[in-house]
Specification:
It comes from Budvicia aquatica. With 72 residues, the protein is of the alpha+beta class. It has a domain of 50 residues: Roll (SH3 type barrels), CATH 2.30.30. The chain is built from one helix and six strands.
Amino acid sequence: MKKLAMLFTGLIMVSVLTGCASNYVMTTKSGDVIVSQGKPELDEDTGMMSYTDKAGDRRQINKDDIKEMIAE
């Protein structure tokens, strides 16, 4: 019974971590497609979206340049 409970707990933890690590696809008004690792963060003061690209580099884009953003 303990093994079953541990397995169930492990599966829940993996599911939660997988949900947090989803990629986002942003389409810009100019037609470019940007894939980010994790959810981009908006800086309300500057209006810039910060995200991590496929290579692991931290980048920023103006939120007004983003046409659409969806979770992958």
